[in-house]
Amino acid sequence: MLTAEERQEIEAELEHYPTKQAVCIDAMKIVQRHRGWVSDESIRDIGELLDMSPADLDGVATFYNLIHRKPVGRHVVMVCNSVSCWIMGYETVRKHLTTRLGIDFGETTPDGRFTLLPIVCLGACDRAPAMMIDNQFYGDLDPAKIDQLLEEFK
Amino acid sequence: MPEKPLTQHIRADRQALDLRAYESVGGYQGLRKALGGMTPQNVQQVVKDSGLRGRGGAGFPTGMKWSFTPMGADAPHPKYVVANADEMEPGTFKDRLLMEGNPHQLIEGLALAGFAIEADVAFIFIRGEYTLAQELLTRALAEAYSAGLLGKDILKSGYSLEMRLHVSGGRYMCGEETGLLNALEGKRANPRAKPPFPQVSGLWGKPTIVNNVETLSNVPHIVAKGAEWFKDLSASPDAGTKLYGASGKVKRPGIWELPMGTTIRELLEEHAGGMRDGVRFRGLLPGGASTDFLVEQHLDTPMDFSSVQNAGSRLGTGTMIVLDDQTCPVGMTSNLIAFFAQESCGWCTPCWSGLGWAKQILAAMEEGHGKEGDLDKLSFQSKFWSPGHTFCALAPGAAEPLQSALKFFREDFERHIREQRCPWGA
To answer: Contacts of residue A120 in chain B, CB cutoff 8 Å?
Structure first.
């Protein structure tokens, strides 16, 4: 079941678009903002609200890399693996993060604190290597800076 | 000092200009001028005369793009204008600067584009990761609405335009014009067949113009100061300034607004400060991941559309990625092709199948499992990624770095196969 708040936020978006489907990506992001991810149940509920079949909506959901169809940890770490970061030390960043967190890409730490994901170019190539934690960008990374940053996210 | 209309007011700490600060340096004068006495056709004409070409990669003349929109009483409505703020071309980080530093400049440019084609609704389609730009644009849109610069009857001119920020779900394909339209409609961002072109049948079948952030940010200045002024900014036949950038192992990676046609050598040596100590230049992608490698012999090429094309590459986004001698060219190519393979939407066979195959071959080569004949396979595969074999520019874009790498760094590829290892130790 969508909460009253989620439903209200989705309906507010509907006013600005000529079709219900146009809102479906926003709708999934609204649910994700509240719950961290988009479950099968949420896909059904959103689909019902927007007159889309669960299959159609899931087809959209799985196309976009910022919609999480699996549960994530409290903080999502997205590491840029595109070309400029690759040149500037992406491998060092990846190795340090996977060792330090004890997980690989697509996994969540057992304490539920971090999920580690790769991401394409973050558009800050003058500050490579780079990553995001939740909505915050961090550049010019090295192992010491990564350790310090991880401490800030409990 | 050459003029820098796009960035001269962006503060060193990138603290965004609010409405008052923007207006104090001439902001919204272009929109006031247009609404105060110009016709939409006048605005189209000045942009056409200015020679402005798209800054998102393809370089299509902006005024001409607008001129294909049906106009007048019989034209279908609502019409749409869209700012493509989905900056996802690897190695490209210029639109971020424009939106974080001066969000109103984009809003004004988009409003002018809207006026020029008599649009009713405008969208800024921004990538999800640009969280700061989203926040700043949201604030700037609210300021513009409350000052009567957007919404109903703008500046009492009778022209109305609603403008909304749309945050993407995230995928490289959203930067492709027709993929972006599908994304805005809440669909998978597969490309659409053209024709019909978006100018005639775009969002929800209505006339739609899509322009890049840097392109639109130029428009207020062109309208305010004229076509001749804009042409004079350039050092080449292509008008205006350009936001150039460099990343990789240069001393000072960054973004610089310079006259269109500044040479690669000047960018690399003067602005980027040359290579870092201990590494030597080997090549570069001049305008993002989907452009052909250029090497030493091309360093004096002016970075304008035709000169870079004559040198065998594309200006693309104008932000170059530099390869040094301590970095493996096969590894770099492998990284690029892995990106394109991942981002392929799966619509056309040469793209989803061919890119996946090439990605495997390159990864194996890096791991020391290269085989005789691999280079022929890569050449053969990439022939099918050319325009005409695919719906959109993704696969042609992937072919450019691969084919040029095979040309300029062939010996490095052969060494990987011969020695059954990456000589750079990957």
So the answer is: 88, 90, 172, 339, 342-343
